[in-house]
Amino acid sequence: MTDLLLSQIKVNDESQFGTDDYVVNLGPQHPATHGVLRLIVKLDGETVKETIPVLGYLHRSIEKICENRTYPQCITYTDRVDYVSAMSVNLAFALATERLMGLEAPPRAQWLRMIFVELQRLASHLLWMGAFAGDIGALTPFLYGLRERERILDLFEMTCGQRLTYNYIRIGGVMIDILPEFVPKCRAFLDYFEPKIAEYEDLLTYNPIFLERTKGVGVITPEVGINAGVCGPSLRGSGVSCDVRKQQPYLFYDQVKFNECLETAGDCWSRYKVRMRELRESVSLIRQCLDRLEPGPIETKLPPVLKAPPASEIYSRIESSRGEMGIYLVGDGTVKPWKCKYRCASFNNTYVLDQLTRGWKIADIMAVLGSLDMIVPEVDR
Amino acid sequence: MGAVGHYFSSIVMGFWNLVIGLSVTTKYFLRMKTNTQQYPEERLPLPERSRSMIKLIYDGEKDQFNCVACMMCAKACPNSCIKLEGVRQPDGKRRVTTFKLDFSTCIFCGYCVEACGFDALTFVSEEYENSVYQRGSLLQDEQAMKWVRPAHLTPKTEEPAKVAAPAGATAGA
Q: Which B residues, 144 through 173, put their C-beta within 8 Å of a C-beta on chain A?
């Protein structure tokens, strides 16, 4: 019997007695993957040889759903594309539709949009900071980040009634005007928030353990970043200027003063520092927008039935919290988009993960993954 | 300096930065002030605009719903979760007979409330505990959604309707 079994095994095969990769599945249910991302990691001891992201666990076919909804109805689905930065996606879709149909929002609506998108950037970066530090092992900053994020969400809830899926930025304007007490409350929040950024920096930036885990880890060189289509703060950490707000200003970003935050090293620590500096830039941006806010209409007069011109197409992009957020729309003269495509920053940022983690230890995957600030629903859509 | 100096300076700097970080946490520890609300015991009032629950406004004086079944809310809904029917009353006005809203597919986007031109649908901010034990309980009808506006609340005085009312429907109630 034993002889019979042995005869069936091919002894000359290298894989029988040679060395083999140790394959580990990280996820899809793993606390550090920020959702249901599955990584197939091939290991040699503890050293990573290859990382293969497996996408699609959170695929809800939002692009296809949008092709069966009217343009205003699509905005409700954009909230679910990137739920940590829902205002940005709302704005991306509203701007794309407006450009497709040749509409323009009144100035007050544009300033309001800028205020809310920048507040959303603060909220998104705060959540990212907490989650990133948590991945590395520092659990305290998560509480500090979420404490301030709550206040931002309170401002959102006061204005549009929701804390996560706002549906606030609409085609041709915004949903509803701000309350009179919004501006003083927002200013009070900014005054409260600005000293807190120094607190986060005290907690994390030069912490020796944090430095050991992030400095020099997962370097994106400018060549790799540009070739892979990495965008947003992840690429700005490598010193490549790629801020859509500067390159191709939309709304009134050409009328306000802000700096594009650039770091040169390209490692996890640089990406962290870029986002920390963006917090300060966003605070100054919101202050300028609040100063420039003037009374006026908040919505353009839309036709009762919103139709795209026949055979029209548009690619419109904005700078979301995670990078370039592009919407490609094809209109066919009806009330529904014929084709709707989201170009999400997280998808391209995930692509570079394999190159960044090769040769590093398995624990560094979490640091790199966290520093790329990916949101799985945005990857899968 | 050299390697030995670098070794000791990094220890000192690392220790110093740990002290800075710990001073932040110690400051909040000694302040003894918490940000957490003990939810079931301690409830915060939600903002007036909070989109917690959709209600169908019932006019107590006239003993009827404000809804005239113009179907604007059903058309505006992205998920088609509103089903309603109406019949013409003896006085010539359409009135709603059945109104069903499936809260298991409702995403609280607010389009139905905005589309309503007859002050018939509204968001109620205080009813935010909407969990149920059975999925079927989420399909609410007009009796479950019936809501009489308290006397201290005024009807919304903004523009009556963003979407033009269809021809034939009688405005006002």
A: 163-164
